[in-house]
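User: Can you help me understand a structure? I only have the sequence.
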Amino acid sequence: MRYERDFTIGLKETQAFYVLLTLERWWKGLAGFGAAGALAAYLYIGLLFSDLILPGQIALIAAAAVITALAVALGMVLSTRHRVRVQLRRSGKERYVQQTAIDAFGVHVTVGKDRAKLGFDKLVRIWETRGAFYIFLSANQAWILPKAQMEDQRAESEQLRTIFRTVIEGKRLKLKK
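Assistant: Let's start by predicting it. Here is the structure, written out as tokens:
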């Protein structure tokens, strides 16, 4: 049970991570904005579309809720991506190579001269998305394993899922099937 790979973490991977965190934190807020959009639509339907039948009114209200929530989410995504780009340029670390090894003892990561090792019991959670595995060290810090950089995405992803399911309890895992 061992997995080893070097990943190059750059702007694209960092932006995806922070967008994920932002949307996770703001899902209730997005629902609230959607509700506000629905309320505004409800209030204006009577003024603008007084002859519209009930199913049409409901469809307009639902569409307003979805469009409002999506517009706010898009604004949050664009804002987050911009902030990450600016911060990476300021730091001068727009790219780095992350040497990752996962074995029975935990996760070992080397970036430049910095080395870190964490046992599985110390990891906050593991989250798999369509594009990457995120190994969380804290609520807002994670090692990123981009799937696009894997030689065989399907096989390596399955290998990682198997390792994580073996050594980490289910409540800290959010993996694809």
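Now, to help you interpret it: The first helix runs from residue 11 to 25. The mean pLDDT is 94. Let me know which part you'd like to focus on.
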